[in-house]
Amino acid sequence: MHSTDTLDLLDKGLAWTTARIAAVPADALDAATPCGDWDLRTLLDHTVQSMATFADALDGGGATVTGPWDAAMADLAARARLAWRQPGAMDRTYELPFGTMPGPVMASANLLEAVVHGWDISQAGGEAASIPDDLASAVLTFAHAAIGEAQRGDAFGPALGPALDTGATASERLVAYLGRTP
């Protein structure tokens, strides 16, 4: 995928996830999520913190993320958008707590993290939104290339049946590939 396409999808994915966060009802914060033992509050904290990790790697920041989750996510999305649009940003290699990544891989990993956790948040919060086809298809392509059985660890369960179902939506195939029940 061309880097401009990836960045456009990342912008859309971050906006989509921010909207999923904004839709969370206050009384749902203790709800179970598709993410193991995490409740929705823990998942929201994790999602915002992981987006901060990507933004910090991009712009060298490290500012404390504060405010409501949706406002923090919107701020992080704006930081990412600005940083990715700097000359040479895609050509750099980035140091993250979990490894070193070339720009295109980091952008795709950022997209995967944002979109899949956006789906998780939507499910736990009762909105039950499907990931838009263009986002789900792009993330699924990256996931197939980056996440094999050896990389699943605690982050992703084994692929479920709908991952291979050609009649399933791209959203259903993606979340099933990552071990979530669509």
Give a summary of the structure in a few sentences.
The chain is mainly alpha-helical. It contains 6 helices and 2 strands; from the N terminus they run H-H-H-E-E-H-H-H.
Blueprint (SSEs and pairs):
Blueprint: H1 3-22, H2 40-59, H3 69-84, E1 93-96, E2 99-102, H4 103-125, H5 133-146, H6 170-177
Fourth CATH level, the homologous superfamily: dinb family like domain
The largest sheet has its strands arranged as 1-2
The helix content is 55-70%
Class derived from helix and strand content: mainly alpha
Fraction of residues in β-strands:
under 5%
The structural domain count equals: 1
Q: How far from one another are the termini?
A: 26 Å
Return the string of H and E elements: HHHEEHHH
State the assembly state of the protein chains: single chain
CATH class identity: Mainly Alpha
Alpha-carbon Rg, integer: 15 Å
Q: Strand tally, please?
A: 2
Can you describe this structure?
The chain has 182 residues and is mainly alpha-helical. It has a single domain, classed as Four Helix Bundle (Hemerythrin (Met), subunit A), CATH 1.20.120.450. The chain has helices at 3-22, 40-59, 69-84, 103-125, 133-146, 170-177; strands spanning 93-96, 99-102. The chain has a two-stranded antiparallel ribbon with strand order 1-2. Helix 1 (3-22) packs parallel to helix 4 (103-125) and helix 4 (103-125) crosses helix 5 (133-146). The chain is globular, with a radius of gyration of 15 Å. The two termini are 26 Å apart.
